[in-house]
Design brief:
This protein has two domains: about 20-145, Nucleotidyltransferase, domain 5, CATH 3.30.420; about 160-205. The chain is an alpha+beta fold and about 210 residues long. Strands 5-8-9 form a three-stranded antiparallel beta sheet. The chain is about 30% helix and about 20% strand. The longest helix has 17 residues, at about 85-100. It starts with 19 loop residues before the first helix and ends with a strand. Residues about 155-160 have low confidence and may be disordered. This is Integrase-like protein. One of its GO terms (molecular function) is nucleic acid binding. InterPro entries: Integrase_cat-core, RNaseH-like_sf, RNaseH_sf.
Length: about 210
């Protein structure tokens, strides 16, 4: 993720394909790194965040829509064949790939991420940017004051996810097109529960009674 004004950036690596859970986890790592979040985030089109487009309205995946609702940021989704809108991100990916990753010997993913953070601190965010002619870290010191506080953070020591869901009239919670039963009598208008995924096991907790 890269901040548009300062070009201050964070890279997060995995040694396996990203899932929706990983995608959300990476967001939280970035918000933690920046110490805040922006009002809008620009994305290239990807199946992890959008599944369809209905007359100009983007239909997001269920998990990402929940995340947007929770975090309250705006989404700008780049259109196809629109290199100008996604150029900043593509430039950052290329820059990190050819200035950090290509020179590294991979041992394990934790070490690779740690080495990348160190490289960003001494090089990626500390050298003059080719376009802005400024040092991202120095500009970020001013930009950071304008970031929004994070309304909700996940446990960044794991890939656990905790989201709020409405209980349906039949005393079930709908998650990924599957219905999960909660105790009879749980439902009442507007009743919410917390659904937590820990190591691929779903836990549902009554928010009111904890």
């Amino acid at each position: 993720m890269v901040l548009s004004h300062s070009r201050y950036k964070l890279a997060y690596w995995q040694d396996k394909p990203f899932t929706a859970t990983d995608f959300i986890y990476a967001h939280n790592k970035a918000f933690e790194y920046f110490g805040g979040m922006t009002t809008e985030i620009v994305y290239d089109q990807d199946r992890l965040l959008a599944v369809d487009e209905n007359f100009g309205d983007i239909v997001f995946t269920e998990e990402f829509q929940k995340y947007i609702d929770l975090m309250k940021f705006k989404v700008y989704l780049c259109r196809g064949f629109d290199p100008q809108s996604k150029g900043k991100v593509e430039a950052v990916v290329k820059y990190i790939k050819y200035n950090f990753a290509v020179h590294r010997t991979f041992s394990d993913i934790a070490s690779f991420n740690s080495e990348c953070l160190a490289w960003l601190d001494r090089t990626g965010n500390s050298k003059v940017h080719g376009t802005t002619k400024k040092i991202p870290k120095e500009v970020f010191a001013l930009e950071k004051k304008h970031l929004l506080s994070i309304p909700h953070t996940f446990d960044n020591k794991s890939s656990n996810i905790s989201l709020t869901y409405i209980v349906r009239k039949d005393n079930t919670v709908l998650y990924k097109q599957n219905r999960y039963q909660v105790p009879k009598g749980t439902y009442c208008p507007g009743k919410k529960v917390e659904l937590t995924i820990v190591d691929n096991i779903i836990h549902i907790k009554d928010i009111d009674s904890n």
